[in-house]
Amino acid sequence: MTGDGKSEVMLEKSQSIGPINSPGMTEDPGGSEKQLSRTNVEGDQPALEAASSEAHSEEEQPLEEWNKPRKNIIRIVASCYSFLILGMMDSANGALIPTLEKHYNLSYLVVSITFLAPFCGYSISAMLNEWIHKRIGRWGVGLLGTSCQLICNIINVTAPPFPVYVVAFGIAGFGNGTIDAAWNSWMGSLKQANQTMGVLHGLYGLGGILCPTIFTSMIDNGIKWNYGFAVLIGLGVTVLVAIGFAFWGDNAQEYRKSVAKSRSDSGAKGGNLFNVLKNPVVAITAGTLFMYVGGEVAMGGWVSTYMIDVRGGNPLKMGYVTTGYWVGITVGRFVLGFVTGHFKHEEILFVVYLAGAIVFEVLFWAVPSFALSAVSAGVIGFFLGPLFPTIIIVAVKKLPKWLHVSGVGFAAALGGGGAGFAPFIIGIIANSKGAHILAPFVFALMAGQMVLWLVMLKFF
Questions:
Q1: Interior CA angle at 210 toward 205 and 214, to 5°?
Q2: Is it the case that residue 33 has pLDDT exceeding 70?
Q3: 76-459: which CATH topology?
Q4: What is the H or E stretch that residue 34 is in?
Q5: Separation between Cα atoms, residue 408 and residue 340, nearest integer Å
Q6: For the chain, how far is it from start to end, CA to CA, in angstroms?
Q7: What is the pLDDT of residue 31?
Q8: Which of 131, 160, 288, 401 has a CB 3.0–4.6 Å from the CB of 164, allowing a cystine?
Q9: What's the whole-number mean pLDDT along residues 62-70?
Q10: CA 425, CA 422: separation in Å to the nearest integer?
Q11: How many CB atoms lie within 10 A of CB 42?
């Protein structure tokens, strides 16, 4: 056989057995190598598919931004406006406590029931938020929550009998809980979460400023206290329109589709309330928020009474101390929220902010000075301000997306329940021991938050 003949035979054999490169590799005309998964032996194919599936599930989905898609801009504006009203609703009772005591001739114990009613509403919403989202979507949740607030304000503008007043705030508590869960879980998952959550909760704090100021000013000028609810009715109608427009299309089908995809990607099998509560991050987040919001609203609700009974302040003017406290919270959320956005470890800054609040709480409690107590109330608010959004942001980062509404939503709603429970307990104790119990009670709640948060840092 000639040399040319041998070459032809060798060429044919090489073509029949394929390339002599390592399995799965071939040469293109330019000499570069490309991976061809189809050239693997058949027995390796399932392994490759499994690896591909695993890689896909671990791949992070790109986060939405405050302006991408563009519809998020109007949704953020509407959510922040909604939280402004939420802050006004949560601070209304605190501003009215001295007036309610006189109008209905009530003791501390009985008037504190006005705080317990929202707690009941919040607690119910905490258990039902995921179920409600699946059936009416964020659009429906926003309309439902705002409608509950409107019902409360329409009832209370008539200065109804005290039991009816209490029930009305229970309805508002349910609505507040659904709104809390919806906007916190959504905005906490955005790329610029620290900044957007700072603004969101800053508007909540602004609502906490406006409501005591409106009610106190009206009462100082001889206007009936219940007419303040007419202002809330007017604002509530505009919120209803804003939410309906901004979240149009974000219905139950869209929500279920999003959750189903995130569960499929993460391999999750279910999202009922029992499975949600088994997650330790959800449990710690809920406990921390419960104590945080409880202390925040207890301070705002009882500080005017404390300044009157313990520090000897003018009953007609102490509503402005409450306003100063909420100013501190608002400024803290706007300023420290943006500061936090420049750091990667929000969980460490939480410890720093909370430690600052504890220091000034001790001064508020231990130093018998009217001026120092008034100033300390505002500084406490400043350091407390960024804590709620920081807790939510850390939880969102630690939890899979399918737990954002059911898990973060549950924690946020239960935290809102603290807004009713803690002030109610203070009312019970103050009825027999006096209003001075406020300072040590809030200090204990702050210490409890620190313990739970350090557990989160250590183990999760």
A1: 155
A2: no
A3: Growth Hormone; Chain: A; (1.20.1250)
A4: strand 33-35
A5: 20
A6: 75
A7: 45
A8: 160
A9: 82
A10: 5
A11: 6
Q: Please check whether residue 81 is in contact with residue 242, taking contact to mean a CB–CB distance below 8 angstroms.
A: yes
Closest CA to 184 of 422, 445, 407, 456: 407
Q: Which residues contact 307 (CB under 8 A, 6 or more apart)?
A: 313, 318, 321, 370, 373, 374
Asked whether the beta carbons of 438 and 426 are under 8 A apart, the reply is yes
> Bridge-partner residues for 25, per DSSP?
35
Question: Is residue 353 within 8 Å of residue 386, measured between CB atoms?
Answer: yes
List the one residue out of 113, 171, 180, 181 whose CA is nearest residue 147: 171
Would you mind telling me the total number of residues written for the chain in this entry? Answer: 460
The alpha carbons of the chain give a radius of gyration, in whole angstroms, of 28
3-class SS of residue 269: coil
Phi-psi region of 216 (alpha: psi -120 to 50; beta: other; left: phi over 0): alpha
Ranges of each domain in the chain: 76-459
Question: Tokens standing for 119?
Answer: 């707690």
Which residues are registered as beta bridge partners of 68? 65
Q: Is the pLDDT of residue 184 over 60?
A: yes
Q: Report the pLDDT value the prediction gives residue 52, as an integer from 0 to 100.
A: 37
The span from the CA of 212 to the CA of 383, in Å, is 20
Residue 219 tokens, joined: 């009462």
What is the per-residue pLDDT across 306-351, written as a single tens digit (0 to 9) for each?
Answer: 999 999 988 878 878 988 998 999 899 889 888 887 887 889 999 9
